[in-house]
Amino acid sequence: QAIDDDCNQTGQILAAMLDWPQGTFASRVELEDGAVRVQREVDGGLETLRLRLPAVLTADLRLNEPRYATLPNIMKAKKKPLELLAAAELGVPAGPARLKVLQVQEPPPRGAGERVDSVGSLLGKLRHAGCV
């Protein structure tokens, strides 16, 4: 479940772009031969979908219980070697970069706020600024 204001847009847009089936807000996932069975909560109860693979799934909070890293395990993880793999080893085709960063800059600083005495005064200022 994405942090896009809990709108669950990312998985659905990706599924549409790939033209793959989608199972959103999955609370239970079971793999089958060439398919996946997804159970999700809907207003009327539970809905079960069977999707052919590949598919895009988005998770509900009830899909699993998160594990929290303890300090000793974090320290152990720092000592483990990091294995680097080339993209070709994973079957990812090589090619020129599809994106190019043209510029990075900070947004302009925000102006100071302004207090108004009444709602009428606020509406007048908003009209004058072209916001209403």
Automatic annotation (TrEMBL):
Main location: mitochondrion
Alphabetized InterPro entries for the sequence: ET-Flavoprotein_bsu_CS, ETF_a/b_N, ETF_b, Rossmann-like_a/b/a_fold
Domain Electron transfer flavoprotein alpha/beta-subunit N-terminal: 8-89
Record's keyword annotation contains Electron transport: yes
GO biological process: amino acid catabolic process; fatty acid beta-oxidation using acyl-CoA dehydrogenase
One Gene Ontology term of the molecular function aspect: electron transfer activity
Cellular component per GO, a single term: mitochondrial matrix
UniProt entry tagged with the keyword Electron transport: yes
Family matches, as Pfam families: ETF
Source organism superkingdom: Eukaryota
Compartment(s) of residence: Mitochondrion matrix
Keywords on record: Electron transport, Transport
Subunit annotation: Heterodimer composed of ETFA and ETFB. Identified in a complex that contains ETFA, ETFB and ETFRF1. Interacts with ACADM.
Function (record text): Heterodimeric electron transfer flavoprotein that accepts electrons from several mitochondrial dehydrogenases, including acyl-CoA dehydrogenases, glutaryl-CoA and sarcosine dehydrogenase. It transfers the electrons to the main mitochondrial respiratory chain via ETF-ubiquinone oxidoreductase. Required for normal mitochondrial fatty acid oxidation and normal amino acid metabolism. ETFB binds an AMP molecule that probably has a purely structural role.
Sequence similarity: Belongs to the ETF beta-subunit/FixA family.
Protein name: Electron transfer flavoprotein subunit beta
Organism of origin: Irena cyanogastra (Philippine fairy-bluebird)
